[in-house]
Amino acid sequence: MRSDDEGESWTGPVKVLEGAFWNCQTNMVIRDGQLYWVLDQKHKATVAIAADLTKDLLDPGAWRISQVIPAKQTAVQFRTAHDDHQPEQFDDWNLEGNVMDVNGRLRIACRVNPKHTGATPGIAAIFDLEDEGGGLSLRFDQHYPWPGGQSKFCIVFDELTRLFWMACNLISSAEPQKLDGGPNGERRFLMLYCGMDGLNWLPAGCVAMAPCSSQSFMYPSMVVDGDDLAILSRTCRSSGHYHDADLATFHRVHGFRELAWH
C-alpha cells in the first residue's frame, strides 16, 4: 500500500509478489533505478527481489524475483560442544539478509541461526546477486566468519567514509550451549563494526549493554543522520526472556565517523 500524504491516508493493499516471504529492517540497495532486497521463505530458503523505481510500485509488473535457494542446499557443518567433538550437519536457518553494493557487485549476507544448542555462533551465509537480461540470479557463495552472525544484524553504507557500518549482537559466554536458546540466546551486547569489503569487520564500539543475558538490545535498525548513526533497538528490559521485547529504545552514536581507523 502507499500513502501520498505522509501517512494520513493509504491506498488499499495490492499483492505484488506471490509466496510466503518476509524480512524485517535490513539493508536495501538502490542502483540504476532499481531497489534490491532479500527475503526469507519461512526461514527455510533465501530469495532476492527487485523493484523498478521508475514504475508504480503498486503494479506487480514493477517487481521481479530470483530463484529460491533452500537452506538445506547451504547447510553448514558446525563443531558442537559434545564430548566427541565431531562436526555435525544441521538444517539451519538462513534469514534476515542484508544487500550490499560492494564496488558494483551485489552481495547478500544472511544470518545463520544454528538451531542446535552447541553449534558455533558468528557465521553468515554469503550470496551473490546478478541482474542481467531482465532476470535476477541468486547464487550461494560461502559461509563466512561474521561478528554476531547468529542474530539479526543491520548494515548501512556511508558515502563519506566509503565504509559499511554494522550493528550486531555479540555473545560473551564461552559455553553458549548453556544459554537459553543456545548460541542465539545472548543479545545483551549491541556492538558497532565497520568494514570496507562487506566481509571483514573491525570493532568500532559498544552501542548499548544490558546487565544480564535475559535482557537484550537486539534487532537493530540503523540510518546515517548527518554526523550521527541513529539506531532503533527491539529491547528486553523486564520481560524475563532475551527474545521477548517489552519496549523499543533509541540510540544515537554522535560523530560515528571518528570511530573508524585512519
What is the average of the pLDDT values? 89
Overall number of strands? 19
Low-confidence stretches: none
Largest sheet, in brief, is: 6 strands, antiparallel
> So what's the overall shape?
globular
Distance between the termini: 44 Å
What class would the helix/strand composition place it in?
A: mainly beta
Report the sheet-strand fraction.
Answer: over 45%
What does this structure look like?
This protein is mainly β and 262 residues long. Helix content is 0%, strand content 48%. The protein is built from no helices and 19 strands. It has strands spanning 21-22, 29-31, 34-41, 45-52, 63-65, 69-70, 77-79, 87-89, 93-102, 105-113, 123-132, 135-145, 154-158, 163-170, 189-195, 202-209, 216-225, 228-236, 247-253. The strands form 5 sheets. Strands 1, 2, 3, 4, 5 and 6 form a 6-stranded antiparallel sheet that branches. It has a 4-stranded antiparallel sheet with strand order 9-10-11-12, with no helix packed on it. The chain is globular, with a radius of gyration of 19 Å. It starts with 20 loop residues before the first strand and ends in a 9-residue tail after the last strand. The mean pLDDT is 89.
Notable traits:
mainly beta; 6-stranded antiparallel β-sheet; 4-stranded antiparallel β-sheet; 19 strands
Write the layout of secondary structure elements.
Blueprint lengths: L20 E2 L6 E3 L2 E8 L3 E8 L10 E3 L3 E2 L6 E3 L7 E3 L3 E10 L2 E9 L9 E10 L2 E11 L8 E5 L4 E8 L18 E7 L6 E8 L6 E10 L2 E9 L10 E7 L9
Antiparallel strand pairs: 1-3, 2-3, 3-4, 4-5, 4-6, 7-8, 9-10, 10-11, 11-12, 13-14, 14-15, 15-16, 17-18, 18-19
